[in-house]
């Protein structure tokens, strides 16, 4: 297997290629081609097409690795990308080739509801795991053209591409500190562009000033009492509360210091696996609702800058107990 740093960069390219496909299809997308997986949980041919593209590329990079994919396309390869007219009845969320070795964990389009409505953000999320260890994670923000990535023990990074004329020489983070920035030139389509790589670091806000993300998962009946308690606890007592609509992006925003904490339950491993590593490598804390750092086989995530983690866990504990 390649070293994790070079592997991460290859996976960034795969995520960008999938993102380009998603952007292209969004330009002519029709809601008539949306399928309902569960109540208020949707999938489109774009999710499946993106997954096919990603899986094919990852198999070429690391043939020995299996897959955990949201849309369960891995048993059907090889085949062409789905056309707009096609409709597939394949089941979602299958651990198609799960084993004990290396596994790719893929969400080909995290934030499908956002995508359907043309509402940012939505993202591609890819992680490589071995047992309970997350070896690398890549999240590509399709709308902002930002690629977040991390590998175990190597730190977390944000790669931004753009024309050289549009790139500022230095970037400061929200705390007014200079971020670790590496710049390099590349040429795409005959046009020179700049690749800017910034090392990520979580924020430092305490709970009173924190910007929190409280997501609303599809399992509304079970989660509604919990989210009501969390909103009641934090609304008016923290900086503010937001909903992103993409678990992968919420985690990356924590890693980048744009959010200070994020809480969600009833989500799949493909939703959080890559982003969780990015948060940890940026200096943040990730646990499940019970506060366990062994979260990789569960359906709940609490991610934070570390400073606000205990207040989040305490609120979650009370919310769960009072709504049982």
Sum up the structure in keywords.
324 residues, 5-stranded mixed sheet, 15 strands
Set down the secondary structure blueprint.
Layout: H1 4-26, E1 34-38, E2 41-44, H2 45-61, E3 66-69, E4 102-110, H3 112-117, E5 123-130, E6 133-141, E7 146-151, E8 156-163, E9 181-188, E10 191-199, E11 211-214, H4 220-234, E12 240-242, H5 247-255, E13 261-265, H6 269-281, E14 285-287, E15 300-304, H7 309-322
Parallel strand pairs: 3-4, 11-12, 11-13
Antiparallel strand pairs: 1-2, 4-5, 5-6, 6-7, 7-8, 8-10, 9-10, 13-15, 14-15
Helix pairs in contact: 1-2, 4-7, 5-6
Structure description:
This protein has 324 residues and is α+β, with helices and mostly antiparallel strands. Helix content is 30%, strand content 28%. The chain has helices spanning 4-26, 45-61, 112-117, 220-234, 247-255, 269-281, 309-322; strands at 34-38, 41-44, 66-69, 102-110, 123-130, 133-141, 146-151, 156-163, 181-188, 191-199, 211-214, 240-242, 261-265, 285-287, 300-304. The strands form three sheets. Strands 3-4-5-6-7-8-10-9 form an eight-stranded mixed sheet, with helices on both faces. A five-stranded mixed sheet has the order 12-11-13-15-14, sandwiched between helices. A two-stranded antiparallel sheet has the order 1-2. Strand 6 and strand 7 form a beta hairpin. The longest helix is centred in the first third of the chain and has 23 residues, at 4-26. The chain is globular and about 50 Å long. Residues 77-81, 83-96 and 164-179 have low confidence and may be disordered.
């Amino acid at each position: 297997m390649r070293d994790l740093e070079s592997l991460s960069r290859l996976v960034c390219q795969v995520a960008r290629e999938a993102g380009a496909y998603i952007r292209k299809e969004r330009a002519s997308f029709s809601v008539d081609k949306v399928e309902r997986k569960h109540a208020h949980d949707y999938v489109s041919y774009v999710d499946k097409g993106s997954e096919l593209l990603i899986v094919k590329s990852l198999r070429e990079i690391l043939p020995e690795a299996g897959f955990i994919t949201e849309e369960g396309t891995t048993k059907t390869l090889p085949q062409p990308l789905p056309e707009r007219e096609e409709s597939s009845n394949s089941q979602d969320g299958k651990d198609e080739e799960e084993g004990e070795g290396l596994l790719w964990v893929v969400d080909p389009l995290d934030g499908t509801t956002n995508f359907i409505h043309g509402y940012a953000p939505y993202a591609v999320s890819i992680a490589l795991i071995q047992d309970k260890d997350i070896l690398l994670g890549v999240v590509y923000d399709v709308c902002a053209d930002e690629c977040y990535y991390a590998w175990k023990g190597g730190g977390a990074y944000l790669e931004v591409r753009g024309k050289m004329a549009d790139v500022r020489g230095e970037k400061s983070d929200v705390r007014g500190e200079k971020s670790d920035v590496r710049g390099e030139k590349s040429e795409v389509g005959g046009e020179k562009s700049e690749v800017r790589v910034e090392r990520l670091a979580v924020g430092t806000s305490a709970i009173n000033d924190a910007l929190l993300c409280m997501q609303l998962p599809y399992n509304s009946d079970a989660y509604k009492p919990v989210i009501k308690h969390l909103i009641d606890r934090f609304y008016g007592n923290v900086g503010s509360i937001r909903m992103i609509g993409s678990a992968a992006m919420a985690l990356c925003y924590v890693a980048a210091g744009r959010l200070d904490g994020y809480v969600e339950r009833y989500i799949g491993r493909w939703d959080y696996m890559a982003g969780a590593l990015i948060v940890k490598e940026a200096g943040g804390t990730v646990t499940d609702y019970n506060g366990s750092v062994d979260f990789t086989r569960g359906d709940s995530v609490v991610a934070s800058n570390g400073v606000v983690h205990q207040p989040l866990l305490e609120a979650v504990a009370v919310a769960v107990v009072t709504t049982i």
